[in-house]
Write a structure and sequence with these properties.
mainly beta, 10% helix, extended
C-alpha cells in the first residue's frame, strides 16, 4: 500500500497481550511496546532515557498465537512492520516480532532444556569429586590450582556441528561449502 512506512520498534511489552479472532476465525493479537529513546545530555556528558513512546502492535495469523504464548509484561522485543500515525498514536502492523536476545534467553522447540520440556534429562557422566580445601585457619601457603586439561576433541566431528569443528583458515571456508570431507 502507498503511504506506509516500514519501521523497526525496539522496547518492552507494556501490559498484557490481547488475543482475539476475526469473523473468519483468524487469530489476531494486540499489544503495546514502550520504546524509550536514548538521548545524549551534553550538559552532563552522559546518555539518559528520553520520553517513552507507546506503539500499539497488531499481528495476525499464526504469529498471533506465538505472540500470545510467548510475550508477557516487561519482555524486551523487536518488532518490524508498517507504521502509521492515527489520532496521535503510533500503530505498527507487525510482520515480525522477536524477543530481544540482548536482554533475554530464548529457547526454540529443538533447544528447550529437557527439564522445561517435560522430558527426563539425559544422564551425564559423573566427574571426579574435587578435593575439599582445608579450612582457612589450617591452610598452608597458597598453592596454584592444577591446570585443567582440555576436553579431547573427537577426531571425526560432523561438519554440521560447527561449534566443535576445527577452526577455519578464512571466512571463505565458512561461506563456501567444502566438497571434500576432512
Amino acid at each position: 500500500m502507498s503511504g506506509e512506512t516500514a519501521a523497526v520498534v525496539r522496547g518492552r511489552v507494556y501490559g498484557t497481550v490481547q488475543l482475539r479472532h476475526t469473523e473468519r476465525g483468524t487469530p489476531a493479537a494486540r499489544f503495546t511496546v514502550m520504546q524509550v529513546p536514548r538521548e545524549y545530555d551534553r550538559a552532563r556528558g552522559q546518555w539518559r532515557d528520553g520520553e517513552p513512546v507507546p506503539v500499539i502492535c497488531t499481528v495476525t495469523g499464526p504469529l498471533a498465537w506465538h505472540v500470545a504464548e510467548c510475550l508477557t509484561d516487561a519482555v524486551h522485543v523487536i518488532a518490524t512492520g508498517n507504521v502509521a500515525l492515527r489520532d496521535n498514536v503510533l500503530y505498527l502492523d507487525s510482520a515480525q516480532v522477536g524477543v530481544d536476545l540482548a536482554h533475554h534467553v530464548a529457547y526454540v522447540d529443538d533447544t528447550l532444556p529437557a527439564v522445561l520440556a517435560g522430558r527426563s534429562p539425559a544422564p551425564t557422566p559423573r566427574a571426579a569429586a574435587a578435593p575439599v580445601p582445608p579450612p582457612a585457619h589450617r591452610a598452608g601457603p597458597a598453592r596454584p590450582a592444577p591446570a585443567a586439561r582440555p576436553a579431547p576433541v573427537p577426531a571425526a566431528a560432523p561438519e554440521t556441528d560447527w561449534w566443535r569443528s576445527a577452526p577455519r583458515p578464512s571466512w571463505d571456508a565458512v561461506t563456501t561449502p567444502s566438497r571434500t570431507r576432512r
